[in-house]
Amino acid sequence: MKIEKDRVVRFHYTVSELGQEPIESSRDRDPLAILIGHGNIIPGLENAMMDKEAGATFAVDVKAADAYGERRDGLSQRVPKKHFGTTRLVPGQQVVLQTNFGPRAVTVQKVGMSVVDVDLNHPMAGKDLHFDVEIVEVREASKEEIEHGHVHGDGGHQH
Ligand code: ZN
């Protein structure tokens, strides 16, 4: 079965910045499961998967614009320190901040007495990425999954 819109794909991936050591890999956990065609993964990776089948392995380079986007200036925000709990903060550190839009990865820029300046750019924004991918499984999505826009069960939402 080929990968196309409204199918569920389970895959392993390893991602690195072009020419560098891996940043992250699914190899030490379960494969990632995503619903194709619903904006669940970066466009460059989704496009590269199209028409592939279970067992396929491939590598793809994805430009920042098709990955996590270009870095944007002016995305700094001053946040009261209490929102970070008791974690000791260091400039350059990546932390997950609870926002009105859900958890968000941010980078600490400057730590003050009572406030912290953070950069809201995605940590991988502005980076050209290299992915090594192995397609583990391709299946039809259920009607409910398509309505919800995400995968249920193995590797997906449990609700
Ligand atoms: Zn759901």
UniProtKB/TrEMBL annotation:
Keywords: Chaperone, Cytoplasm, Isomerase, Rotamase
Family note: Belongs to the FKBP-type PPIase family.
Any one Pfam family match given in the protein's UniProt record, by short name: FKBP_C
Catalytic activity, EC: 5.2.1.8
Enzymatic class: isomerase
Record flagged with keyword Lipid biosynthesis: no
Location within or outside the cell: Cytoplasm
Predominant location category: cytoplasm
Superkingdom in the source lineage: Bacteria
Reaction(s) catalysed (UniProt annotation): [protein]-peptidylproline (omega=180) = [protein]-peptidylproline (omega=0)
GO BP annotation list: protein refolding
Function of the molecule: Also involved in hydrogenase metallocenter assembly, probably by participating in the nickel insertion step. This function in hydrogenase biosynthesis requires chaperone activity and the presence of the metal-binding domain, but not PPIase activity.
A GO MF term: peptidyl-prolyl cis-trans isomerase activity
Entry protein name: Peptidyl-prolyl cis-trans isomerase
